[in-house]
Design goal:
Number of helices: 13
Number of strands: 0
Strand content: under 5%
Radius of gyration: 21 Å
Order of helices and strands: HHHHHHHHHHHHH
Structural class: mainly alpha
Number of domains: 1
Shape: globular
Oligomer: single chain
Amino acid sequence: MAVDPMTLTALVIVYLAATLIIGYLGYKKTKNSEDYLVAGRDSHPVIIALSYGATFISTSAIIGFGGASASMGMGLIWLTVLNIGIGILLAFVLFGKKTREIGQRLSAVTFPDLMCKIYKSPLLQYIAGFIIVISMPLYTAAILIGGARFIEPTLGIPYTTSLILFALITAVYVVFGGLIAVMYTDAFQGTIMLIGMIILLALTLVAVGGFTAGSTALTNMADLVPKALSDQGMTGWTSMPVFGSPIWFTLVTTLVLGVGIGVLAQPQLVVRFMTAKDNKTLNRAVLIGGPFILMMTGVAFT
């Protein structure tokens, strides 16, 4: 079904305007460094959950992992299990609470700052900061590229122009609005992502005739697996790869365990815990974050 170009353009303009307005409101609400770096330590649980989820589930997860599931099968759904079990429950209930408590007690405002004040080691702060400065631009670049690649065919804007505009808009609300603007923008974008995934799931189920019919049809397509993938261990789109095969090792060690457990070490996620007023706020955020991650990764990976 074709989308009217004028309607699409209007929606994009509204989206960009809303993003910039949120950034401006964040700028007006920011009064000191604590507001700028940890959102005043008084964020609403819904905002924390959606911001955490939208940061966690970026273009790399929706576009990249969605494509990975096509070459590895639904075994990738185990990553969803770990994302919820470790990335939400363990992260918020155990890791997040301690991070919030210690961060508030020591007045830490960043992850390197937290490490420095816990271990009383400025050197550790410099090392952590250096690692973030070196590695995060690579991750950020992947997200910007994914967004630009999506904008290019959707809106007909050249890739380079899309990339520059995407980066500039993001830079404006991040630099001027601080974490308050970032988290509210995340929540806004996370809501759009959630609505989009719900629509995608509904349309897909209608097209394939429901969960059972779709799963059965996909299972029966196992003989269509390309030889290059079957030689590497892929057995079908609804089954795990052959145990010990190259695809199995990539799926289990690099993606499921690497990403599923590695979420605890992502500084851009850790700082979200430090924005909560108390532990009850984090408990309530779990009730939103769990279903959000389930919908986002469950639909994208399958």
